[in-house]
Design a protein that fits this description.
7-stranded mixed beta sheet; globular; binds flavin-adenine dinucleotide
Amino acid sequence: MKTNKKIFDAIIIGAGIGGLVTASQLAAKGAKVLVLEKYIIPGGSGGSFKRKGYTFDVGASMIFGFGEKGYTNLLTRALNDVNEKCETIPDPVQLEYHLPNNLTISVDREYEKFISKLSNRFPKEKEGIRKFYGTCKKVFNCLDSMPLLSIEDPSYLFKVFFKAPLSCIGLARWLPINAGDVARKFIKDSELLKFIDIECFCWSVMPALKTPMINAGMVFTDRHCGGINYPKGGVGKIAEKLVNGIEKLDGKIRYKANVTEIILKDEKAIGVKLSNGEEIHADIIVSNSTRWDTFGLNNNDKSLIARNSVPKSEYNWSKTYKPSPSFVSIHLGVAGELIDKNFNCHHIIVEDWEELEKEKGVIFISIPTLLDSSLAPDGKHIIHAFTPSSISEWDNLSRKEYLSKKENYYSFLIEKISKIIPKLDQNIDHKEIGTPRTHRKFLGRFKGSYGPIPNKKLLGLLPMPFNTTNIENLYCVGDSCFPGQGLNAVAFSGYACAHKIGSKLNINDFKLPD
Ligand SMILES: Cc1cc2nc3c(=O)[nH]c(=O)nc-3n(C[C@H](O)[C@H](O)[C@H](O)COP(=O)(O)OP(=O)(O)OC[C@H]3O[C@@H](n4cnc5c(N)ncnc54)[C@H](O)[C@@H]3O)c2cc1C
């Protein structure tokens, strides 16, 4: 089947949050968009699925970007731009750390409360703590003072520079810097520096020395400004509402639509081919698939672009960044009485600092029913826990070995969670176990990876690629583009992508605020 007649201005491959924000922004600018999603629900790693009366989040559940003020609240803005809104529930605490040497500390929404707790634990570093987090706030203030659009668009940069020159200079200054270098300027205590490492690792999956300062500034401040807010009904609501917005604006989304090829003609992207042989053409193609899956990098045997047409710049990128490990995730339905109503929603356990970057070195635990009880049947809670795991641990196993390994990881996670939620194993009503193979299969992500991490220490965010590619009319969006992983970050990438395309199609109605 061929549809050479162009019905759509832009085709977006993938309905992750990056793809959906691009599509909804383009639709809001008046473009006709088609989103092709290979799975049966929208949202990718930011989706939700239902089992036995439970609504489980696929991955993300600690959500930034839902504030009401400033410009960094990109989820609020993206929904608002297509006349949609998510009801959200504020989380009083971002997360609670359970770290070696009995370092148990929670990060309160209230900045002063968190800073004084940390200072009490590290009294000699009181000043350094204020200086480090204060510097993060300065970075955030620069970001929050201007509309966040495409840094690739000279006219945007020109306008924004004239409007907010100090913020622009501020941001340019921090772009090549990593959070660990800033921390070391102000802090000497090695345990506190390790704490800064886990503060970064829990969203960048990198220690502070390899985590860009721009991202750290954003995360370490937004949690106290806009705060962490959980979308009522589950994280998947964000994607569902973006889809509603796209459809109201005459855009279309198709599920079970697996794109196997981006069609090129005269070195330009002109359409896509689906696994059923169907071809659809459009002037603009956007890939929300990872760069490894789009360009077949790092010996990926799948590629949407024919091997001989892959730009050299993409191979260069894949030498600079490698795929992070994936996760083993468990989703549990458990007896409600197991968890006190004042327990915090998100927890991280590290038992040995030396293991931080290793297989099973960190355990992430979320109990979103503490914020939204509608996610589980009456009297039940949800626990979602995950730990880093590499695909190399899971490939080349027989079925029996695979199932047995799954059970081993499951028991490992249950034992660790039981340290903060005792009697867990006797109170489980429902369980799901996902491995890196599950992430690879259902999210279509190379090696099931969480996203790109630097191969070596880099100059902050500078080497991260933007949305344009060296193939004309082909754009990338999502966590393998600037500024990286996380729902709010990929929403930024979506805004930037739609703005860059909008300037090409001449549909940007862009005015800086007075
Ligand atoms: C376990 C886990 C926990 C996380 N926790 C948090 C958190 O608490 N807070 C936070 O902010 N972030 C968190 N994240 C990260 C966040 O979820 C991701 O960074 C973000 O959702 C990535 O969005 P994306 O748009 O780049 O891509 P994805 O979510 O990967 O979406 C891409 C979509 O494209 C589709 N697709 C791919 N290839 C094709 C194709 N060829 N044809 C058609 N469709 C295709 C996929 O099916 C998928 O739906 C977590 C991630 C994981 C895995």
